[in-house]
Amino acid sequence: MSVVHPFSLDYPETKSAFNKQSIGDTQKEQGWTNGPDKHKDEVVPTLKEEMVDFANNVSILGMKQIVNTKYSPVRRLIWLAFVLTGSAFLVFHLWNRIAYYLENPASVDVRFNYNDTIPFPTLTICNNNRFNVAKLSQNSQYNLASFFDFAVTPNFTGYDMDAYNWTAFYIDNQYTMVDIAPSYCSFNSEPCLSNLSLVETEMGTCLQFNGEGELKMVDGEGILHGLTMYLLANQYQYVPFTVTAGFTILLHDRGEVPQLSRLGLQIAPGESVNVAMKQFKVSNLPPPHGQCQDKSLKYFPKYTKLNCEAECGINRTIEKCGCRMHHFADVSDVRVCNPRDLRECDAVNSTAEIKARNCGCTEACRRTHYETSISHSKLSVLFMNTMVAQYNVPASFYAENLIALNIFYSDISVEEVVQQEAYSALTLFADIGGALGLVLGSTLMTAAEIVDFVLGVSLWKLFGLKV
């Protein structure tokens, strides 16, 4: 009779232990089941347990101490007070920073640029007398010029204002280059009469230097590196209603309409006038941090606030009066305003009217302006005697008409004022992250942990989904 080894599968007890049923029972007892009953007896945590587990793992200092059951209730309440106080401060700080960011704040940075050369501005020079009395007499139109005396109320009876060609009137009776060209012109110690041109302004036909052609540059400070002119007012050509003798001058950026009545400087005859200037550049921000714009204009190639206001005045004058000022852009099929129109429409181009009609003319995003300081003194007797000997003209003529004008840079450095964004989105996030770390020892990723927890609990409670 053969003997069966106890560990053999043929041994009765071992055989029964490894039958299919017993293996299954053993797996169930030990929790090995991989079938449908795998999670049948798994314990589902409560919401409280989930929250305690979250508090123990979230990256917020103090949360572990609040839910730690080993601590006494008083100690846990103290930690809760710390966390709530820190959270309240954090909420206030976030509200303050976000509110500041939404204000779109801007700051100003001042820079000084030192250059070897610098552009010379455009200079517009207007005789304070608008019409040449000799030409008015020659053209038998002296009586029409009296309508431009705005100090009195003219009598238009017997005059058909629309019957006259007012464009021709301005051309025929205003100054020409021969009338207003300086007797002497020097720029950078070189002759400059060929660099002069004429321009129409509200003061009539005026002289302009560096208004067209190659832009003139300066490589030094002082009179020798600037512009020198000898101007003659020729008061014997003045009409009776011209109040001030001499010239009105304006330094401005090329392409900008000269607003002499608003910004011009008066210079008087019989004097030597020094105009020292310094260039400033301004860079503004567009909305939302600033209010600048660079929109295109219909009548001017370059956007500036003054050009925009001038264009607004053109449109408003045409709309309200059916005419245009003689110095405004030539608009097809629109006549030049006659003296009666000028009186009725004068308020159209006032500063108050510009604001009232909301022209939307804000500063350009980049602009250049010039600050000036003026000094003047009487022309010397010796100098005038020299002029008398050279041109055989009485000294009294030069005393009443001659102006020696010097315009130069006192400093060729450029002061640039730059408007820039004061509080960017990156700075906002850095402030938020800094406050989180300082108060609660957290980071911006803590927000992701909170969102993840809230979303997971919501899906579990509302839809029974465990994620």
TrEMBL record:
Membrane topology designation: Multi-pass membrane protein
UniProt xrefs under Pfam families: ASC
Transmembrane residue ranges: 77-95
Keywords from the UniProt entry: Ion channel, Ion transport, Membrane, Sodium, Sodium channel, Sodium transport, Transmembrane, Transmembrane helix, Transport
Gene3D superfamilies: Acid-sensing ion channels like domains, YojJ-like
Keyword Transmembrane helix: yes
UniProt GO cellular component terms: plasma membrane
GO molecular function, one term: ligand-gated sodium channel activity
UniProt superkingdom: Eukaryota
Location of this chain's protein in the cell: Membrane
Family designation: Belongs to the amiloride-sensitive sodium channel (TC 1.A.6) family.
PANTHER family: AMILORIDE-SENSITIVE SODIUM CHANNEL-RELATED, PICKPOCKET PROTEIN 19
Name of this chain's protein: Acid-sensing ion channel 1C-like
